[in-house]
Design a protein that fits this description.
The chain is mostly helical and 335 residues long. 53% of the residues lie in helices and 7% in strands. The protein has a domain at 206-298: Tyrosyl-Transfer RNA Synthetase, CATH 1.10.240. The two termini are 31 Å apart. Bound molecules: tryptophanyl-5'AMP (TYM). Residues 5-8, 16-17, 20-21, 43, 46, 133, 136-137, 145, 147-148, 150-151, 187-189, 198-200 line the site of tryptophanyl-5'AMP.
């Protein structure tokens, strides 16, 4: 098994990232067989596709690395690195841009969402973004790519690109990766203010998300203010249909406590959200507070974070190099 995944170093790590991706990365790392390999990276080249504040980006890279380590990524067992430090990502991305088709990228919903009404003003990088993401995983012959549901379409594109390249050049160079989306309730954590929007770093309202950096009081306040409805908790999952905010809070509680929607409803049905919310707050504080404390400690040692990232990049480069060499050979660029 070769597990590869990334996160953009923009803004704070939030509960959606944790449940949809990071805590699953940690579990895969912790349950790994000795021959499995895990590569996790800060997708800083992806962060260039929208407006860049260089000082902010520099700070965010360290902060996100510290947040991943605080969440349980162990640099001795996983390869943790900065995408831009391994040049092969950008190099392979170019090659794969010549394999991917305009029509495939035109179907990517994230570009439509992120460019909004201003398609003409969006960067070319924002459009080509999913091809760089394909390069990120194909470079390492990833077998499993653990991501939240919102990234599924991008991983499916990576599969299409791998298949077309292999087919066009009569090679088996690229392993076709599997998107590895969490089962249960964590694959798509929604905003606390709007059950139809996903929890996201880019939501202007901080009340919409729980951050790794939130104090216990901030978590309690956000849950207190989270949108719900006046109905009591149902006894069956079907009773959550048409109640996206209620469903989201039950889903979060299930994911955080290791339960299922059914088990949460079995314990809490008939209650109003006024009494469910304190239980949810306690569960979230129990999850977040220890990670936040570790993050604060790690922040104090920027040099150590830099050392970890540099060592990770050295290891990643060794794994990346043969893919580029072989890609250039089958393309006719080298003998
Ligand atoms: P990013 O930085 O937006 O998010 C990092 C991870 O968190 C997951 N996630 C969520 N999961 C559940 N509910 C949510 N509300 C939620 N919000 C975010 C994302 O699905 C993701 O797994 N393009 C990627 C980064 C990337 C990448 C890659 C991922 C670059 N190259 C190669 C995998 C493989 C992104 O912007 O994720």
């Amino acid at each position: 098994m070769r597990v590869v995944s990334g996160i953009q170093p923009t803004g704070d790590l939030h509960l959606g990232n944790l449940l949809g991706a990071i805590l699953r990365w940690v579990r895969m790392q912790d349950e790994a067989a000795p021959t499995d390999q895990h590569l996790f990276f800060l997708a800083d080249l992806h962060a260039l596709t929208v407006e860049v504040d260089p000082a902010q980006l520099r700070a965010n890279i360290r902060e996100m690395a510290a947040a991943l380590i605080a969440s349980g990524i162990d640099p001795d067992r996983s390869i943790l690195f900065q995408q831009s430090a391994v040049r092969e990502h950008a190099e392979l991305a170019w090659v794969l841009q010549c394999t991917a088709r305009m029509g495939w990228l035109n179907r990517m919903t994230q570009f439509k969402d992120k460019s909004g009404k201003n398609k003409e003003g969006a960067s070319v990088g924002l459009f080509a973004y999913p091809v760089l993401q394909a390069a990120d995983v194909l470079l390492y012959q990833a077998t499993h790519v653990p991501v939240g549901d919102d990234q599924k379409q991008h991983i499916e594109l990576a599969r299409d690109i791998a298949l077309k390249f292999n087919n066009d050049f009569e090679t088996e160079l690229f392993t076709v990766p599997e998107p590895f989306i969490g089962g249960g309730t964590a694959a798509r954590v929604m905003s606390l203010r709007d059950g139809s929007a996903k929890m996201s770093k880019s939501d202007p309202s901080d009340m919409s998300r729980i951050n790794l950096t939130d104090s216990d009081e901030a978590i309690a306040q956000k849950i207190r203010k989270a949108r719900t409805d006046p109905e009591p908790m149902p006894s069956e999952p079907a009773g959550l249909d048409g109640r996206p905010e209620a469903k989201n809070l039950v889903g979060i509680y299930a994911a955080v406590t290791g339960g299922t929607i059914e088990s949460v409803l079995a314990d809490h049905h008939g209650q109003g959200f006024g009494s469910f919310k304190p239980a949810l707050t306690d569960a979230l504080v129990a999850l977040i507070a220890p990670l936040r404390r570790r993050l604060v400690e790690l922040r104090g040692d920027g040099a150590e974070i830099d050392r970890i990232l540099a060592a990770g990049a050295d290891k990643a480069r060794v794994l990346a190099a043969p893919t580029i060499v072989e890609a250039y050979r089958v393309l006719g660029l080298t003998r």
